[in-house]
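Sequence design from tokenized structure. All designs in this work follow the same two-part layout: the structure record, then the generated sequence. An example of the structure record is given first.
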């Protein structure tokens, strides 16, 4: 993802803004909205449709715009069931805009509703990655360790994130202080490494200046820019 924004709240009446649980954008351009609802709410379908209008309007561009939109996915993870008898039988409901013949009319707007109370697979029944994620989300609060079937890097990371969310204020402050120290140390090491690499590239470039290679060719061999090579060549002329 190019970004993941974690937000809180639902609807700001004063500013008429929707505030999502998670709103993220993939490198390829797709927008994802994730809503997690513990308690039953009225007009959830209406609100879902209303929410997707914001990332739609956000894509509007000033000037000469051809109205091309990137796909939008609205994912609702619900800890309750709908009232409608037909929907009560569906754990997962995928909704798309279709015509009178059932053919997809617009393939860039997708709704995914998961009614978690209807997910009843046991640990030994999990087969797909989707099954595992649903099992993880539904049972996370009861885990005191990662089940063997979820002992994979992606779930280990998710489990660690969930543990972090449950830290006390004091524990979180200590964690963040350690994280800042780690980032500082990592940045210093990376800077030293980059400096060493650049110095080595400069020394190689200086030796290649003695040949008949062009600035472009030296740039290709060393990783320096053509402008950097040109500056080294000018410096050499001045020092003669």
């Amino acid at each position: 993802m190019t970004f993941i924004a974690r937000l809180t709240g639902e609807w700001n009446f004063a500013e008429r803004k929707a505030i999502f649980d998670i709103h993220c954008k993939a490198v390829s351009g797709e927008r994802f909205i994730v809503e997690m609802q513990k308690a039953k709410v009225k007009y959830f379908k209406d609100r879902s449709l209303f929410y997707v209008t914001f990332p739609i309007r956000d894509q509007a561009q000033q000037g000469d715009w051809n109205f091309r939109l990137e796909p939008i996915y609205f994912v609702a993870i619900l800890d309750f069931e709908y009232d409608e008898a037909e929907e009560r039988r569906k754990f997962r409901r995928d909704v798309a805009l279709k015509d009178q013949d059932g053919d997809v009319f617009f393939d860039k707007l997708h709704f995914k509703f998961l009614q978690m109370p209807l997910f009843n697979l046991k640990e030994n029944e999990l087969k797909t990655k989707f099954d595992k994620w649903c099992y993880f989300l539904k049972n996370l609060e009861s885990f005191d360790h990662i089940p063997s079937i979820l002992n994979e890097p992606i779930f280990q990371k998710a489990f660690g994130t969930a543990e972090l969310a449950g830290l006390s204020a004091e524990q979180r402050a200590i964690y963040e202080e350690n994280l800042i120290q780690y980032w500082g140390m990592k940045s210093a090491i990376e800077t030293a490494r980059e400096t060493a690499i650049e110095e080595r590239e400069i020394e190689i470039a200086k030796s290649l200046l003695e040949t008949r290679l062009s600035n472009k060719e030296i740039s290709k061999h060393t990783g320096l820019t053509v402008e950097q090579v040109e500056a080294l060549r000018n410096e050499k002329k001045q020092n003669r």
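Confidence is low (pLDDT under 50) at residues 1-19. We note this feature because it recurs in several other targets discussed in the main text.
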